[in-house]
Please model this.
Amino acid sequence: VSQATGLAAHRVYVSVKRVGGGFGGKLSRSCIPASACAVAALVLNRPVCLSMSLSSNMEVIGKRTPYLGRYKVGFDDEGRLLGVDFQLYENNGCCSSESCLDYAQEFADSAYFCPNWHYIGTCCQTNTASTAMTRAPGAIAGHFFMEHIMDHVAAELNRDPADVRRLNMFTAGQTTLMDYPITDNTISQLWDDLMLSAEVQRRKQEIEVFNKTNRWKKRGLAVVPIRYSIHWSFARFTVFVAIYHTDGSVVITHGGIEMGQGVNTKVIQVAAATLGVPMEMIHVMATNSLTGVNSAPSGGSVCSELNCKGVLECCRRLNERMDPIRQEMGGAPKWTELINKCHRKGLDLSEKYMEKPPDTEDGGPQYNTWGATCTEVELDVLTGERQITRVDIVHDSGESLNPDIDIGQVEGGFVFGLGYWLTEECKYDRKTGQLLTNGTWEYKPPTTKDIPADLRVTLLPNAPNPHGVLRSKACGEPPMLMSCSALLALRQAIQSARADIGRNDFFPLDGPATVEVCQKKCLVDPSNFSL
Model:
């Protein structure tokens, strides 16, 4: 806004209470309508409101970056990876202002160790609107390509994909593609727990029997792990905590944007626990460009925990400042009496702090978040319609600050990803680059009929994170990666349909695997219709 209007930054005041589903477009592309409004308001010297139509919004604001992956992989007779030669092409649209190739590279090895890598990423420019970072940018694609490779290796060896995955999982002391050491590894425990709790082997046997006895209905099951590296050093958030002397109530403003991830709830919890007051006495005011000055974008899954860390430090300093008076009053005075006396003695009952984590010693992530999911689907071979019958997820959230919020994030992230992999197809005019799927008639986000019929989420117990805030872990973006298990399960179901006509060759299933795509991949031929 400052650049568009020519005003100095200190003349621009921005206040945001909350946004709905603020992923991707609202991270950076909000600058487009905001700048338009600001210029009009400056010229007209009056308030201006811009309300874009859905079609205009979808055409102007770029979507998640599309990718094309090509690979060669070497492995031994057991399926252990020996080397991967991988080329990744990223379509940035008309400009590469938000390339995510570095993110894709960091997640390209998923949860698996391979001693030899040759990785090349290439940015490509086309005639579409420039793409925007969206929940787990680059990571979701890099992770999927590796999971596809594991399926391909298993198919070549005629082995269970789950066995090949388990064989190649990281162990402590190994390094990632980015040469970061693995030190906080819970994936083996997560995987083994999921295999037992989800009864994977029994269900695979039942699916095999079902597919043999049904020609036009097929089922598939896929088990997928994740490793999501969490970086702190790129972010900074300014936090302000103040206590009112009249009644002892507390107000907080922080540099994060509440978009449903629960940052406001978590900072209230942290402040209440640290100051020793009920949560009802604490209020979070709107984020603004004064008290939250110079804060980073709310991304990378670190907004909640770093703002909590900042609130923790503010409250610690306030407690330290009030402790001498607390001791004068016997060590355990009533909160309101303590605050009132502190005020009378002239103590500053407010504190500001900017949380800016330093780089880690090896330049790697602060920690890794791990998870595993098992997804089962049923496919109608004739129509391509499908139902996600059951999903089991085990997610490592450390010692969760709020299990209700974190489970909601896992559920929401997984369903968010289902749209990406199964339904949300973008079509463009080849000559002009204009988006053709610019409304709900053409563009299909997941709805009530697309979510799993049976969704079971478990947070890994007894797994404190020594490198996180109050031993917790982030959970905003990691669950998004698990959703590719639905596409891989569909590929298993389609493979069974193809096997019935003697087609046992391995085939890729690209995303989004829409109803039409799945039906065509089944290679249905009217000559196969017989009574």
Observations:
- The radius of gyration is 26 Å.
- The first helix runs from residue 2 to 5.
